[in-house]
Amino acid sequence: MAMRQALVALAGALRGATPSAPLAGGVRAFASQAPSVYDRIVQLTVVDGEGRRHVVRGLVGQNIVEVLEQHMDTLGEEAVCLSPEGRDIKEAHVKLPNELLGAYPAPAGDDAFFLNEIAVGTDGHSRLGSKLAMGFAHSKALYALTHLGVADELAAAPGGTLPAQQLAARLGVKADELRRLLRATAANGVFAGVSPGVFANNRGSSVLRRHHPTSLHSMVQVWGDESYWGHKQLAESLRPGSPHSFQLQTGGPGYFEWLSQPGNERRSRSFHNAMDYPWGRHANQSLCDVGGGVGGFLAPLLRAQPSMRGVLVDLPGVVADAEVQWRLRQPDLLRRATLAGADFCADPLPSADIYFLRYVLHDWGDPEARRILAAVRSAMGGGQAGGVAPKGLLLIQEAVLSDGPLSPLYAGLDLQMLSIAGDKERSRREWQQLLAAAGFGLRRVHRLRTLTSIIEAAAQA
């Protein structure tokens, strides 16, 4: 049976017996010191393929598996993973579509947030106002706190908590304004208010730390800065013949051209911050970074993998800038790197063991993307002369969307591409079709800790 995609959010193990006043939408929380039959309520919010919300409730003392089975058509078999006794919901360790981020038990301090999430979903005015029309304010608050490094400061504090006044003194910012930003993000489940004016990290904010294993520190800064800015003229960009929104903002340059301009070095570093693929498997091999800009990815890769060799391919003007920067910043790497100016849409590509396309193909529609892939296929030895290089490998770093309904997060990524580059993200099926049309077979998809994946493909005979 085809799996229906579902987004599952665990509302948490609620404590108490006495119902509070109803929240928006009639949802009630429970708050009491005395243990009772409600001591371990499990509540799930399930969003089905049509966007309808279903609330699944059950006592942990019950067989929760039976409760969930009643909703399995909506939920999907792989959405949650339960302990053998069916007494607790654990982090999912099964393969999930990208937008299914697993089912997690919520810390006690987060219960109110999850209940409000359920409530807001039943109240159209609240959802339209807080989640959509005013979403920009919450987004910019999150960006500001991430840019300041608040999550790292809280993690370093004794006990992991700090009053807003002390936190502001450490960061050199205004105390009351900082408190209000933290209060706003805590209302969205990021950071926890442990007492009035005192804050700590929670699961939502921990990933904002710079060195968290699944850090979103750089990604949030990209979204909250240039991506936010690039959406400002989205309505105007919909008119026939209009450039996309980002170009309307810049007055001409597209996103990647603008990113390489002087003054955008910090933004470029934030953008080029994913290195989760097991590059060590390619020791002693050469990698051609197609459309690699000034080498913001290739240089750190060669530094981390001293036996690899690299070829940087981009437009001649971009590569001329790259040559200047490499001579100034990493002249030692030039012994293992070739910088080649070329139009990869038209010119032959240099020979290499691996061809890497990072954030390139989502800038192009399918016809142009097929031409780029065909150029790579030809460079591997599979052009008119026939034959396939035995070690020829193609790696593509891009978002891989679900083939079914999308979560708001991945739908937002697709809108980013519509606004910034006038193009799109692709699903796994769309990637398979695109690769097959250019003579490649998709081998596997390597999930990264960011929102992107690395697609591994090989040339077909």
From TrEMBL:
GO biological process, one term: methylation
Keyword Transferase set for record: yes
Domain O-methyltransferase C-terminal residue range list: 285-440
Key words of the record: Methyltransferase, S-adenosyl-L-methionine, Transferase
InterPro entries on file: COMT-like (IPR016461), COMT_C (IPR001077), COMT_dimerisation (IPR012967), SAM-dependent_MTases_sf (IPR029063), WH-like_DNA-bd_sf (IPR036388), WH_DNA-bd_sf (IPR036390)
Domain O-methyltransferase dimerisation as annotated: residue spans: 131-208
GO MF annotation, one: protein dimerization activity
Domain of life: Eukaryota
Keyword Cytoplasm: no
Name of the protein described by the UniProt record: Hydroxyneurosporene methyltransferase
Lineage: Eukaryota, Viridiplantae, Chlorophyta, core chlorophytes, Trebouxiophyceae
